[in-house]
């Protein structure tokens, strides 16, 4: 019995307690943007909807950013990244972009790995991480400070019914 309890303590530490104790400031899933998303920190969403197979971002208290993105694509009969060839991660605090990573390549399958270090503010209210277009081909120039966001930290529900269930009191 003691060994079983110890095992659960180790699993709990690895999944929940230890990441925060090891200086993790922020960790969240990344979701594709929609053309109907609100402008965030003065940055508009991309001109097409984007989907993500799987993606997450972590920022440590030391400002180390790690994002692993798989399948960031414009959906359709032939899903594509369009003209986008590079992305960057930007941290938004209280409605203002406070730091961004360098540009990292986005391949034709919609995969990218972002690893960099940013300077964190001493306090970050309402943190959001935007995945912004930082390089493109044949689509004109990307504005200084990167282009629109095509993905962002957050979550989605599978249906409106799930939202209603979450709002219902437990019995």
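^ Assign residues to that structure.
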């Amino acid at each position: 019995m003691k060994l079983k309890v110890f095992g659960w303590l180790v699993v709990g530490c690895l999944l929940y307690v230890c990441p925060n104790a090891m200086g993790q400031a922020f960790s969240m899933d990344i979701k594709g943007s929609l053309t109907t998303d609100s402008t965030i920190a003065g940055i508009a969403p991309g001109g097409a909807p984007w989907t993500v197979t799987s993606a997450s971002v972590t920022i440590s208290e030391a400002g180390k950013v790690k994002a692993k993105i798989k399948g960031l694509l414009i959906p359709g009969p032939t899903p594509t990244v369009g003209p986008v060839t590079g992305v960057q991660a930007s941290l938004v605090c209280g409605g203002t972009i406070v730091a961004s990573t360098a540009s990292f390549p986005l391949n034709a399958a919609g995969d990218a790995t972002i690893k960099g270090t940013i300077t964190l503010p001493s306090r970050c209210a309402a943190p959001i991480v935007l995945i912004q277009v930082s390089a493109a081909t044949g689509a004109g120039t990307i504005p200084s400070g990167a282009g629109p966001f095509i993905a962002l930290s957050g979550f989605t529900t599978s249906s409106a019914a799930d939202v209603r269930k979450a709002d219902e009191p437990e019995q």
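Helices lie at 2-21, 160-167.
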